[in-house]
Amino acid sequence: MGPIIDIDHLSKRYDSGTFALKDVSLQMQEGEILALLGPNGAGKTTLISIICGLVRPTGGTVRVGGHDIRTDWRAARKLIGLVPQEIALEPFEKVIDCVRFTRGLYGEPQDDAYLEQLLRSLALWDKRDAKTRELSGGMKRRVLIAKALSHRPKVLFLDEPTAGVDVALRREMWQVVRDLRAQGVTIILTTHYLEEAEDMADRIGVIRKGELLLVKPKDELMGEFGKKRLTIALYEPLASLPQDLLTRGLTLSADGMQLFYDYDTRAERTGIARLLGELTNHGIAVRDVSTTQSSLEDIFMSLVEDNPQEGAA
Known about the structure:
This protein has helices at residues 44-51, 73-78, 95-105, 112-121, 137-149, 167-182, 194-200, 218-225, 272-281, 296-306; strands at 5-13, 19-28, 33-37, 59-64, 67-68, 80-83, 155-159, 186-190, 203-208, 211-217, 228-234, 250-252, 258-263, 286-293. By secondary structure, it is α/β, with parallel strands linked by helices.
């Protein structure tokens, strides 16, 4: 089976000459979750808008379920659901009518049983007759998800779906996303909450200034860019490191009570055993050792800082 999303050398250039996207290529398989990370203005929303048919590209092609988004746009759009950043709902419309209306826009027949199941899965069934203006911000965002899923799309775009949502509600929405993946829905997620990407994504993509810097499986990315830090707690403070340990990559804490050693988890030898032996030879008594792993946020920041943003569109 071919990819559900096939993006080939996609570009978007505005009349001013600014590139919002530069030669982006990406394939996604059915039931996959991709977290697309990047600073503000990196091109995340532009990419989603092009795939959804809201913005016209200036180069390249996009196919969804084998359908070209420009030449066979109607079939492509029917496979797509979009949850936008902005909460735009008719304030005096009931929740159930709002979702029914969106389903009708895609030419789907009425299916109250499915809509009930959908609203129950999003904890909206009890609010079905409430007007959207009466809902909290988190509930309104759930309505957006219900609208996006009303026609049973194969691909779902979540553009900052938990912005402004409290922690408890955010975790409930994560579970909804996992359930959708289990049903075979392909999901592209943009978020500023990197723990979301680290917790849910199969692959991570990093975009900057319209260029897709990398797309890698999450575990591979963590292994390739992630480093571990060994923290060595001492019984007695050190005024300074012994001369022959200065080249070992050790860092001494300000109070002299801890040593820090960063190492690559992929290296054949980490050097930890040798290092601890050298400390013993110097009469440095070790009280405790612990390790910490780089988080996705650390990795993301290192990529962004190595490639500082310069006003991307």
